[in-house]
Structure formats: C-alpha cells, structure tokens
Amino acid sequence: MDFAKVNYSECQEPVDRVYTYRVSYLRRYLLSTLNRDMIKPQDVKTVLGIVAANPDGHLLAWRYLKAHWYTLQTMFGNGTFTMGGLITAVTSHFASEYDFKEVSPLIMMSIL
Fold first, then answer.
1. Alpha carbon distance 86, 63 (integer Å)
2. pLDDT top residue among 102 and 7
3. Dist CA 50 CA 44 (whole Å)
4. HSE-up of 52 (CA within 13 Å, CB side)?
5. Measured in whole angstroms, how far is the alpha carbon of residue 23 from the centre of its chain?
6. Is pLDDT at 103 greater than 70 in this prediction?
7. ∠ CA 87-41-104, rounded to 5°
8. Is residue 61 within 8 Å of 44, Cβ to Cβ?
9. Domain residues of the chain, as ranges?
10. 3-state secondary structure of 25
11. 6-64: per-residue pLDDT in tens?
C-alpha cells in the first residue's frame, strides 16, 4: 500500500495529511472537508491552504472552492470572516490580473 495513503488515514493533524504529490489524494482530501466526521470545520481553512500551497494542488484547491462555494457557505454561514479566510487560504499565491478577475466575483459573493 502506498505510504501517502496509509499516512493520510493515520495522521491526527490535517497539515500532516497533505504532503503528497498524488493529485488523486489531494482531491480526496479536499472532498473530505465536506464531511464533518472526517475533517473538523475549524480545520477546513487549514486543509484548503495547505493543498493550495502544494505545487500540484493550487489550481485544484481553487476549483474546489469555486465548485463547493455554496456548500461551504451553508456549512459556515454568510460570515465574511470565515468565507474570506477560505478565499485567502486558497488564493494567497495568486499574482496576476487574470487571477484577480477570477477571485473578484467570489469576494463579492462573500460580502453580500
């Protein structure tokens, strides 16, 4: 069995689970944030940020955030503090005007 897969299931800390370069594991880890029995709500921001910091995960984390925006909003409420924290965790490495244009609508949705 692959070390990363075993490590994923045995780690207690979310940060320890995402040091893998297998995109399928990163994707599965992101999806597990929707299950409160697997990932505590207070750890979701950490998971998203760490996956986004992974060279193979930054685009994956961004797409995940966009795809599950309304689900995450339901989970955390409309508080701009939490939703803004998720945006920051995923987009902190963005630097181009294109990235800004991608993020702007999501920021506006978190404010409204």
1. 13
2. 102
3. 10
4. 20
5. 13
6. yes
7. 15
8. no
9. 3-111
10. helix
11. 455 566 555 555 555 578 889 998 999 999 898 988 899 999 999 999 888 988 999 99
